[in-house]
Design a protein that fits this description.
By secondary structure, the chain is an alpha+beta fold. It contains three helices and seven strands, in the order αββββαβαββ. The protein is about 30% helix and about 30% strand. Strand 1 and strand 2 (about 35-40) form a beta hairpin. It holds the Pfam family YjgF_endoribonc.
Length: about 150
Amino acid sequence: MSDSIQARLKELGITLPQAAAPAANYVPYVISGNMLYLSGQLPIENGAVAVTGLLGRDVDVARGQRAAELCAINILAQAQAALGDLSRIKRIVKLNGFVASMPNFVEQHLVMNGASNLIASVLGEPGKHARAAVGMASLPLNAAVEIDAVIEIA
């Protein structure tokens, strides 16, 4: 991992966890050409889903943003496992964010800011990305947020 990325992680108080193993019949990532596709990451912390429930009922926006941050940390952990070195990331192309939420909850974009801000803080300009923030009726393991990523690599 490049010194600047490592320094930013340390500055933010982030230690990347071990990348999560798949929970079903899929692979955690696929590399095709110069693109890395990461499977959806949940807000796992210390081996368990840290934020569960629906936004607008069980979870407020601030806690939803924390869930998105945890997903982003797990995205970086999976990228590290796939690439061996985060400095191989040329650009985060897109994050797709799925937010478990009540039908009347309309702030999915604010929840996703948790992930977007963290990725940009860690990677700088290459961390700025396109994204989607979609409301869902439910997510695996009752997670409040799930995020996948498309990454251009060197």
